[in-house]
């Protein structure tokens, strides 16, 4: 299995970056191949632009998207690693999801509203939080992050 790990943290020495490296090392030790997309180190632009809008549904994509699509195409599984930031993902990761998983490549709700244009893949979120378990429980963050039954 080939695993794509997408990291969003500006500090390469942060806990999130260490978690991504340890996850990848574990995957490799289990016999899988890995690939890292370090959004900050690579200078990924999370800014959704008119270029993104005008390319939706066409092959005339912004120049940075084909490589992101190729990474995903190589992956059997995808792991997103980012710190919990205001109850969600930081802007860089949100921009990566918004721009890369674009209409016409990831989905086409006009022709088949319930179908993805991408094959199913395994996924994992590694989301460190800068709070204690008690604090996360008392504020409702854990309940908000738990998957639906």
TrEMBL record:
Which UniProt keywords are listed? Oxidoreductase
Pfam families given in the database record: Flavodoxin_2
Which protein family is named in the record?
A: Belongs to the NAD(P)H dehydrogenase (quinone) family.
Native source species:
Shimia marina
Gene that produces this protein: kefF
The name of this protein is Glutathione-regulated potassium-efflux system ancillary protein KefF
Which residues belong to any copy of the Flavodoxin-like fold domain? 1-145
Q: Where is this region: Disordered?
A: 129-149
Q: Which GO terms describe its molecular function?
A: NAD(P)H dehydrogenase (quinone) activity
> Is Oxidoreductase included in the keywords of this UniProt record?
yes
GO cellular component annotations, sorted alphabetically?
A: cytosol
In terms of domain of life, where is this protein from? Answer: Bacteria
- Residues spanning the signal sequence: none
């Amino acid at each position: 299995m080939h695993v794509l790990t997408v990291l969003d943290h500006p500090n390469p020495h942060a806990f999130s970056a260490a978690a991504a490296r340890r996850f990848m090392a574990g995957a490799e030790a289990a016999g899988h191949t890995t690939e890292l997309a370090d959004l900050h180190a690579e200078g990924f632009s999370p800014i959704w632009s008119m270029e993104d809008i005008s390319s939706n549904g066409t092959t005339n994509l912004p120049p940075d998207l084909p490589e992101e699509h190729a990474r995903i195409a190589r992956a059997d599984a995808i792991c997103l690693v980012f710190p919990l930031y205001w109850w969600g993902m930081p802007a860089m990761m949100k921009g990566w999801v918004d721009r890369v998983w674009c209409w016409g490549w990831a989905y086409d709700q006009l022709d088949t509203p319930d179908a993805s244009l991408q094959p199913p893949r395994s996924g994992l979120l590694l989301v460190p939080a800068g709070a204690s378990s008690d604090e996360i429980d008392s504020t409702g963050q854990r309940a908000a992050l738990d998957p639906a039954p």
